[in-house]
Write a structure and sequence with these properties.
Residues 12-388 form the Major facilitator superfamily (MFS) profile domain. The chain is mainly α. Helix content is 76%, strand content 0%. The protein has a single domain, classed as MFS general substrate transporter like domains (Growth Hormone, Chain: A), CATH 1.20.1250.
Amino acid sequence: MSTYSDLLKTAGVARIITAQLVARFPFGMLSLAFLLHVEQQTGSYGAAGLVLAATSVGQAIAGPLTSRLMGRWGMRPVLTITLAICAAMVSTIALVPMSVPLYMVVGALAGLSMPPIQPAVRTIYPKMVNSRQLTPLFSLDATAQEIIWVVGPVVTTFVATQISTVWGIMLAVIFMVGGGIWFIVLPELGRVRIPRSKRKLGAVLRRPPVLLATGVGFLLVGACAAVEAAVVATFGHGGAEAGIVLAIFSVGSIAGGLGLGHVPIGPWSTARRMLIVFVGMGLAAVVMVLVSSDMVFWWLSAALFVAGIGIAPALAVLFAMVSASVKFSDTAEAYGWVGTGQLIGAALGSAAAGFLIDSNGAVGGFWAAALFALVGFIVPVLAKRYHPDLRGRDASPLPDTEAIPVQPTS
């Protein structure tokens, strides 16, 4: 733990981690908030899944584009414009009753304008700490991200079920605007300028580690989103059980992030962490089939605690492998692709779970989660030779320019 305390004492680190956490907190709320709200408005999880899928299309298009624009226009202008548009679109979904096609259109616009905070902050990190501190910083950031993806839905569940689904979405807007403004005005954004990339859009995906991180991130977050939908379907909208189970899920993830975040990253690191996630989610599906209804709460909580242990450590590995594999001018776009993969995973995981819940009951959502996690384990096993070995290596981005050897004159 001394590693993390030293990190937080480094100038600006605690401030930027907290600000980006608040600004990105809505990203962990909106998939479930949209699912609950549209399902309540239409009476169909399938219709809600279509809205989430439309949102994911917008996110898929916008992620690398807005990230790349930060190298051309600067971080603050891009973040400000996207923040204003996204907040307006998300508020429209909450406040304006619409047909499913209109919900899909507005959802797509919200996805297109998602502020690229994740690529911005992870581009700044290597400029704030030394090489020895960078991997632990990614681990700390991954643990914070678990608060976003797991605690965010817990908050959404409580607000949406105890107050209203409208307030479940509007609370996300409040976090988005308040946290976004806080992040934008931080002095660290003015001290770091992202060089304009000389490569074509998408060229960074030719680097196998970036493609691997994008794919595994998609599958991991898709599994988490499916679990969230399945837990809500299991316990219904009226009680606190769903929120408590998801909170236990988050505790497992935070414990894993803090306990395993300092472990050196080798070629098998991603596969091992995803195996933990799959085992826990597979157990959750088994619990739904074999355990009596009066014991489901306790067994499901235990299974999801196990699954959570692998989540933050897996994310830390993905962030570090991207950082160590690209040039600094390409880091924002690379993290844009990784973030797009995660956001699409969140939306499609919820959508897949929604359709399976409609047809098979709550257990269908856990089937979807286990399948996402299983594929997320298989992919890094098959792609092991493309996985960077960072044991004893610096995880900082590659320099855009290299020293030119000069022959001394006699």
